[in-house]
Every structure is written in structure tokens, then in C-alpha cells.
Amino acid sequence: MLFKNSLKVSVLIILGCCLQLTACSLISKPKQWFDKEEDPREPAKLINLGTEKIKVQSVWKNSIGDLEEAHSVIRPYITGDLVYLTDAEGRVEAWQRMDGKRIWSVTLKEEITGGVNGGDDIVVVGTGNGVVIALSTVDGQEKWRTSVSSEVMALSQAKFGVIVARTNDSKVHALDVGQGNIVWKAGRGTPPLTLRGASEPKVVGDSVLVGYDDGKMAALSMRDGTELWETTVSVPGGRSELERMSDVDGEIAYVNGIVYAASFNGRVVAVDMDTGKILWTKDLSSHVGLSADESRVYVTDSDDSVWALDIVTGATLWRQDKLLYRDLTAPKVMGKYVVVGDFKGYLHWFSKEDGKLVGRENIAGDAIKVAPIIINDRAYVFANNGSFSVLQYR
């Protein structure tokens, strides 16, 4: 789990972490450092939703290997009629999107830490040894593998003949989809203390949006890596390195020419895509990120409250605090509702209008770390035990 609630942890504990963890990257939340009876952040108990809750039905369910050892967020890749997934130990599979039937399966025998993503007839994953591996979408045959600067944390979709890898040292590498050659590089320095993880580089038009560990976000040209603009999502503040953590690690949203992003220990911002100018800000800490529709921005904060903000001004429209400390994913829009996953394998639905909890389904029995993928009226959900579920509400 990711690190939260920095003020609760002593300086001595943090110094110990810095000595023991590579590059001072944090993996656990402070609540996991306490015995249960000492836990200062007990997850909220689930309330009775009554008889008015929406009805949810399972379309199909399948499973791949366990993700418990991944120590990072591994995402499924869905395109056309197929779903591509991987487990932590390098088994990559393609399934039919409509019924979950397995099309092919390969075993790479590598520790997978980034992906899955793809495009242009390839599927790519990244490893803890800093290698990007491309497979054929048709049969899973390996097409190339390329070493990059460090552990691969996230990968973009392919566009203009390249795919972008974000590595754990805050670097960005664009790789040619045909041969895997590194076409261009970009990046920044890494702060002494950071969250473990990275947002997926988001392709918008001919640009790719990248969030960094120092609170910055940049738009880079997909063609040559030229920095089109850079903006500050969060300014590191505080006296300790812990208080100065300001990673932009969560989901980034794009709607009608505006980019929306959030940072840990920082704020939510709306940024003009053409110029990089900040249009509004909201003081709100989030490491999992946000989503947006035509009228609202939806954010899960660092205490697991879910917020709806006015898309034009950033003003608060509602806040739902009935799921505190349940390690929620970023919210995703699903028709008239917003849906999140939690640490026990539940999906929760909220009304977009007022934030009221209107639905709940325990689908996995294990943590859901990656936000559900919503396509039309269905939610595609990947859980930490490797289960993959498809649901819709009636």
C-alpha cells in the first residue's frame, strides 16, 4: 500500500526507512507499522445501504496469477475485443473481452512492475530490472526487449510509433514500437523521499503528460520529447522530507482541452493543455488521482474521502466520507454513478449528483489497487489476487 498521513509518523522511523529502502522509496502506509490495537486509522465500517441500492450483476470472471509481490500498481490493458493482463511473476495473457476466454498465455519469468499497455500490434510490460518487453498482440511472441535506466513503473499507450516508459528514477524513455530502440529521453531528479509508484503517462493528441516526484507535471512531444510546458501541481513544503513529499502519482484526466491532476501533500489543479497555464487549484492531497466528466472532477483524497469538484471553478460540490481509510482507488465515472474499489475487494457506487452511496458489491475478496476501467455500461476490475471481474448494473 502507499504511504499516507505523514504527520503521524516520527522522524526516527522515517530515518530508519531512508537507511533501509533503495532511494528512500516508501511501500507501506504508516498504519501497517502498528499492531491492530495501536492503529490510529481504523478503516470505516460499511453502512447499510437499504433497499434503494442499485442492482449489480456479474457478466464474467476469470483469474491470472497473484499480484501480491508486485509492490506496484499493475494495470490491465483493454483494446478492441481483447483484454491483456499480467501477474507479478511474468505470466502475460490475452482474453476475449466479451466472455473472458483465454486466447494465449506466455511466461516471461520476470518480476513485472509496470504495464500492461500497448498499441500498434504490440503489448508491453516493464520489469523490476529495468527492462521493457514487447509481445505480439496476436500470439504473445516476444518481439523485443530494451533496458532502461531503472525499474519500470508505468507505460503509456503507443502512438506515433513510440511507447513511453516512466521509470523509478523519475526518467521517461520513448521506445520505438518496431525495434525497441530508445528514441528520446526526458526526466527530472528524484527527491530524497518519494511514494512508490508513478502515474501512467497519458497520451493526449501528439503529446504525453508525465507526473513527477517533485510535484511537477510536464507535457512532452511524443515525436521527439520536446518539453511543451511544465507546471507545478504541488510545491514541496514542511520541515521534514516526509512533509515535503509531493508526488504526482495518481490518475490524470483530460476533458475538452483541460488537464486535471492531483498530488500527494498538495492540491488538485486544472491546466490548459495548450499553454500549461493553471486555471484553478484546490488544496486537496491525493496519491491515487482523479477522473472527470463534462461537469465535475472526482477525487479520492489521502484519507479516502471522495470529492466532487466543479469542473470550471474547483469549488466543492459534495464530499463522501463514509469510506475513510479503506484504501480507495481513484473514482471512475460509470453512467449516472461514480465507482471506486477498496482494500477488501468491494466496489462502491456513488450518485454523481450528491455523493450518496447507492451500491456495493464484494467481487474479489482482496485489495483492488487499480481503478476500475469503465467501457460503456461495464466495469472491468483487476484485484490483487489476480481475479478479473466484469460487472454492470441493471
Characterise the protein shown here.
The structure is a single chain. The protein has 394 residues and is mainly beta. It has one domain (6-393): Methylamine Dehydrogenase, Chain H (7 Propeller). The protein is 3% helix and 44% strand. The chain has one helix at 11-20, and strands spanning 25-26, 56-63, 77-79, 82-86, 91-96, 102-107, 112-119, 122-127, 131-136, 142-147, 152-155, 162-167, 171-176, 182-187, 194-195, 202-204, 207-211, 216-221, 227-232, 253-255, 258-262, 267-272, 278-283, 290-292, 296-300, 306-310, 316-320, 332-334, 337-341, 346-351, 357-362, 373-375, 378-382, 387-393. The protein has a four-stranded antiparallel sheet with strand order 2-34-33-32, with no helix packed on it. Strands 3-4-5-6 form a four-stranded antiparallel sheet, with no helix packed on it. A hairpin with a 4-residue loop joins strand 4 and strand 5. The radius of gyration is 20 Å and the shape is globular. The chain starts with 10 loop residues before the first helix and ends with a strand.
